[in-house]
Design a protein that fits this description.
The complex is a heterodimer of chains A (about 325) and B (about 450).
Chain A: H1 19-40, H2 46-67, H3 78-88, H4 96-111, H5 124-135, H6 137-141, E1 144-145, E2 148-149, H7 153-163, H8 173-178, H9 190-202, H10 209-229, H11 237-245, H12 249-256, H13 267-287, H14 294-311
Antiparallel strand pairs in A: 1-2
Helix pairs in contact in A: 1-3, 1-9, 2-3, 2-4, 3-4, 3-5, 4-5, 5-14, 9-12, 10-11, 10-12, 10-13, 13-14
Chain B: E1 24-26, E2 33-36, E3 46-47, E4 54-55, E5 60-63, E6 72-73, E7 78-87, E8 93-101, H1 121-130, H2 143-146, E9 157-162, H3 171-178, H4 180-193, E10 198-204, H5 208-217, E11 224-229, H6 238-246, E12 261-265, H7 266-278, E13 284-290, E14 298-303, H8 308-314, E15 324-327, E16 334-335, E17 349-353, H9 357-360, H10 371-375, H11 382-390, H12 394-399, H13 410-414, H14 421-438
Parallel strand pairs in B: 1-14, 9-10, 9-12, 10-11, 13-17
Antiparallel strand pairs in B: 2-8, 3-5, 4-7, 5-6, 7-8, 13-14, 15-16, 15-17
Helix pairs in contact in B: 4-7, 11-14
Chain lengths: ~325, ~450
Amino acid sequence: MSEQLKVSSSPHIRSKETTGNIMLWVIIALLPATFFGIYNFRDTHAWLLVIVTTAAAVLTEYIYEKLMHKKITIKDYSAAVTGLLLALNLPPTAPIWMGIIGSVFAILVVKQLFGGLGQNFMNPALGARCFLLISFTGRMTSFVYDGVSGATPLATIRANIEAGNAALDGVNSMDMLIGNIAGTIGETSVIAIVIGAIILILKGIIDLRIPGTYIVTFALFIGIFGGFVDGVGFFNVQYMTAELCGGGLMLGAWFMATDYVTSPITKKGQIVYGILLGCLTGLFRLFGGSAEGVSYAIIFSNLLVPLIERVTLPKPFGKGGEK
Amino acid sequence: MGLLTFKGGVHPNDGKSLAKDKAIVELLPQGDLVYPLSQHIGAPAKPVVAKGDHVLKGQKIAEAGGFVSAPIYASVSGTVKAIEPRVNPTGSKVNSIIIANDGQYEEVEYPQPKPLSELTKEEILNIIGEAGIVGMGGAGFPTRVKLSPKEPDKIDYIIANCAECEPYITADYRRMLENPELLVEGMRVILKLFDNAKGLFAIEDNKPDCIAKLKELTKDEPRMEVREMMTKYPQGAERQLIFANTGRAINSTMLPADAGCVVDNVETIISVYNAVVKGIPSMERVVTVTGDGVVNPGNYKVLFGTNQNELIEAAGGLKEGCEKVISGGPMMGFAMYTTDTPVTKTSSSILCMSKDEVSACEPTACINCGRCVDACPSRIIPSRLADFAERHDEEAFLKFNGLECVECGSCSYVCPAKRQLKQAIGSMRKTALANKKKK
């Protein structure tokens, strides 16, 4: 027999799932929120901002890798996910150039300079969002809805409390669920985000550990301490609903806290991470300078991931480990 | 009661339909037979024949080289042609006895064995050791040693590993279907060694016909029981099998006997039956020749030492452009660079693949998705261990329990970045174990 046989270490079969497939599903899961955002803010250039920001992220990755003579990795769609997520985190009125700057920062500084996919220690989209928040605070925090500048529901609550009015004046929970409110492009509709999350769960791409613990911890935290600090009483349902639906918590919990690269790989670590996120978000909401706090809570927790993993190392099979 | 199982594991396409319905065909060798002196774990066997000697089928040609070792028998009659290194299925050159087959199959006269009821435990163990029986599922651990734990009275389960969880392979399946009584009788022999033990036939639920057959055969056997397990890879890995059936978990520093268990594979138990009841040493086994790269997949009863090319020919030969030929299953088998190798005691299958999936996919960066952690039956973190292995960071590798890896390959299978996790961890494990021995 003279044919050349191929040899390699076992196993000799591989699952069909690839990094590219996974990222593509994340993009698909983000589409409901994206389209809702474009529709919700149809009187702005939200649609253009989404396209340009996403394209800028992909292009930045391509140019950087080309210049550095590295393998071009845009086909794994991870840059597109970053760009799209960043766009969904921008106010619909943000100038186009801000989207581009954000994408360049996300891909170049947060992702590529730290070694590319898998090596970044914080979520690139959120890193860029925080960078933009610090650099262009005014533009990043002014929201327009239906052609008039309007506060986000959480900002309304905060303003009510400071003015001594009833905290929940002018806040409609149903609007928040559907998304007919001011906010960043992709964060407003809880329903659209949850549809996307269900897609990811059904595809086995994310599980409930991180988002579930995050949301439950935050709900308990805000239910107890929010009632105390904001004077709306313990477990005030309308207040808790507003806090849970607003401020990008849903987008953050389902799509950014679950980012593989920047969350713990250990199962116990994921629970710890979710609890940490819930408590930090609650703290930032109640005592922080802005009404949101999800982005900061996530990137701060990203930094603690190596520590969390170290203390949650699983016990192996047969050594007292989970059976 | 739900199906017995363990946590972790993967569900690859099982490919068993290719050869599942092909009855076992006996195949007689044509060319020379090659017997590697090392086809088991432990010391290599020592030849007791010399070049030019005439040997008969069933004649001992090499004796055990130590306590953990096993003798080897000629499976044909003929002349010893040479004793020289030959390539074995795992790709290394091993000193081997080569016998020119005279085609006569003249057999030695086997001593008439005593009936089982008259044999003492010591006699049974000696027969098993002398018959050259080793674990035929793949590891090749001498069965005599396995059946001689320090405290035999503390063994409460003899588990017949009927899982055959490796995709594609159907050898054990056919054995259970065609010779279930041999398996049950073999179990009876082993149970005689352990007064307090119960014999379990642990089968995956994708073999309902075998389950039914064995249940029927053992319905009046108070000491035997058929256990149904979930179909999942690696259900037949020793530690996972023991856990699924008894709830006892052992780690890398323990033996099944520490959990009161002895695990033997189907073919091994049938060999025990042949040796103890029939007086015939270990000389043959069933091998599945399968995969989309071979013309007529099938199951063959072959004599040890038979050239694998003869088996492939019997199955109609390789298809044009067959890229990979594996000795064993797709998850843990060895890719062979040449098929000019002998069938050994541990050859369960020849898997011929028309496309090599592994070389078709390029490893990319780890995205920390954790699929390997979910799949790992040893509950360790394959992606981290592979990183440590690539950096030769032995200390971190040990700290993260790298030695607990059973090299089942589930992590590499699920990895969306197509990293060679098992390969990296496996080679680091070898180094770490060698260093440990030195200390």
